[in-house]
């Protein structure tokens, strides 16, 4: 094996990294054969897969490819091709030289060509100006469209919140009815809370609502058929870069998974799950130890137990992957997971987590590292039976 260990221009620092380069190179080659990035729908599907970790890489070669796909997805604009001007300049210089040195040349013919070249040059300048104006208008269109999109999103959220506020005096006295009897492995689904009925009728993908005080996090929570759709669609099913907060497709709100994982974009505007990173501060944590996540079946408060940074691991990595922690088969396995989370946590919350606790994991992108994730994990607060707390 060569001592330089170079793959696609990337030089590995060790044999293991070289082998990772080779695996990523094969994966990238397979993707390029399968995906036409000029097809927006295929590009969107690939981008979504990279965001949620369905497609994962393990080396700088793969990370560069991720950055390339992200840039293409986010910055697709019309580009005006550069114009070739050198030939006109050469012809002009040639005719000028002929006019100065060759008395035998038909001066009228030279003048004709000179005027023709001047008209072509003027036309070229006109085309360039029109192209620049078009580019500016196109850019303004995208900016205005984004502003309108964000405005529509805000208006949409306000409408949903207002709808809930209008019925608040009614549903505060309504509690969910449970019947957890099991017959031949079939669960009887409880009634949907009154405050969510209208919203659920509008979109059956609704599974609840999450709210964290002193943040922008105050959104409906969705459950799509996959982990891609709500990365780029709003509550009403419209295309929207902010997407929605949504539950991992491997989790279930009823019957409830041991751990329910919710994803949201880390938007630069501060929307969706961007403010989740406020928990990086211990001071913020101490004043925001709990938050609300009401499912469509019950109201509940959650207590923050672990806050940590992680990343999307390579598929063959046998280490602990928080995003695969959904259900467990034994108490021993559960305790092993909890110990992993304690070791990852930025600070000690002194919150004890037991096998019978119901967990909720909030996950968003973390730009502090390659393919990073910022994660807050909490447990559902249990209240004494018979209370309305």
Helix and strand layout, with pairings?
Layout: E1 6-7, E2 10-11, H1 15-34, H2 40-52, H3 60-74, H4 86-101, H5 107-166, H6 168-171, E3 182-183, E4 186-187, H7 194-202, E5 206-211, E6 218-222, E7 245-247, E8 259-263, H8 282-287, E9 290-295, E10 301-311, H9 331-344, E11 359-366, E12 372-380
Parallel strand pairs: 6-7, 8-11
Antiparallel strand pairs: 1-2, 3-4, 5-6, 5-9, 7-8, 9-10, 10-12, 11-12
Helix pairs in contact: 1-3, 2-3, 4-5
Report on the structure:
- The structure is a single chain.
- The chain has 389 residues and is α+β, with helices and mostly antiparallel strands.
- It has helices at residues 15-34, 40-52, 60-74, 86-101, 107-166, 168-171, 194-202, 282-287, 331-344, and strands at residues 6-7, 10-11, 182-183, 186-187, 206-211, 218-222, 245-247, 259-263, 290-295, 301-311, 359-366, 372-380.
- The protein contains 9 helices and 12 strands.
- An 8-stranded mixed beta barrel has the order 5-6-7-8-11-12-10-9. The chain has a two-stranded antiparallel ribbon with strand order 1-2.
- Strand 3 and strand 4 (186-187) form a beta hairpin.
- The longest helix is centred in the middle third of the chain and has 60 residues, at 107-166.
- The radius of gyration is 29 Å and the shape is globular.
- 25% of the residues are buried.
